[in-house]
Write a structure and sequence with these properties.
Blueprint (H helix, E strand, L loop, with lengths): L20 H13 L3 H13 L4 H13 L2 E2 H8 L3 H13 L3 E5 L7 E5 L1 H22 L4 H21 L19
Antiparallel strand pairs: 1-3, 2-3
Helix pairs in contact: 2-6, 4-5
Length: 181
């Protein structure tokens, strides 16, 4: 077990070498997932600046992840009826966040695309998040920043391994299929 020599944000003593892995993981998860009201407030201000509802963010997220979607696929992704999805897209289209376009192969197919304004929402949110993180990182020593970078790279590598799809099963891995390697 490693000896952790950083001061914890909650003022408690750092774990000792005798700490068990589960305890370390629990404390790390607490640190990584702690969102203060101020943190949430910053994100809500960004959403509010665009006057977006969570439903609109859900639509834009689905389009960003999947690319243009048919109304049916968008309704499925949002777990709403086709009529509800149509109403949501109508309102978003009026605001210039999405647009409907006919498919190139089949003109009967109508696909919903994010517009430049719709794509800008996430760029603005990322810029805000990056600005806040830059101010936070400025408070760390060079050694702390280096250690954090090593840790973040390890987390991203582990995430890629843990979330790989099992091609034989065609499903994302559950706890029983995640490689521990």
């Amino acid at each position: 077990m490693r000896n952790i020599t950083v001061t914890q944000s909650n003022g408690s003593e750092p774990p000792t070498a005798a700490s068990d892995r589960q305890s370390l993981e629990r404390e790390l998860l607490d640190e990584m997932t702690a969102w203060s009201p101020r943190d949430r407030g910053g994100m809500f201000k960004t959403w509010h600046r665009h006057a977006l509802s969570l439903v609109h963010l859900n639509v834009l997220t689905a389009l960003e992840a999947e690319g243009p979607l048919s109304m049916r696929r968008l309704a499925e992704a949002m777990d709403v009826s086709d009529a509800s999805a149509t109403g949501i897209v109508d309102r978003m289209e009026k605001r210039g966040l999405v647009e409907r376009r006919h498919g190139t192969g089949d003109r009967r197919m109508v696909l919903v695309h994010a517009t430049g304004a719709g794509e800008q929402v996430f760029r603005d949110m990322a810029a805000h998040h990056r600005d806040v993180l830059s101010r936070v990182l400025a408070e760390l020593t060079e050694e702390e920043v280096t250690a954090l970078l090593v840790g973040m790279r390890a987390i991203h590598a582990a995430k890629r391994r843990a979330l790989e799809w099992d091609p034989d099963q065609g499903l994302p891995p559950g706890p029983e299929t995640v490689a521990t390697g």
